[in-house]
Design brief:
By secondary structure, this protein is mostly helical. It is 54% helix and 0% strand.
Length: 69
Amino acid sequence: MEKITKDTIIMDVIQRDMEAARVFFAHGMFCVGCPSASGESIEMASMVHGIDCNALVDALNKFFEEKAQ
């Protein structure tokens, strides 16, 4: 499975698995359903919302790794 990176578009993550929204929420990013999410990378949204991009990407990859087991 392809790893999530800071360049991954938010909506691509959500379309892969809607439950991934919980990971965004846990990191303080509640805009997963807004129009910007369909074209905004995780890095761009993290900068706007003052979120640690690397921590969010790591958490998303961990989420998908655990679901794959």
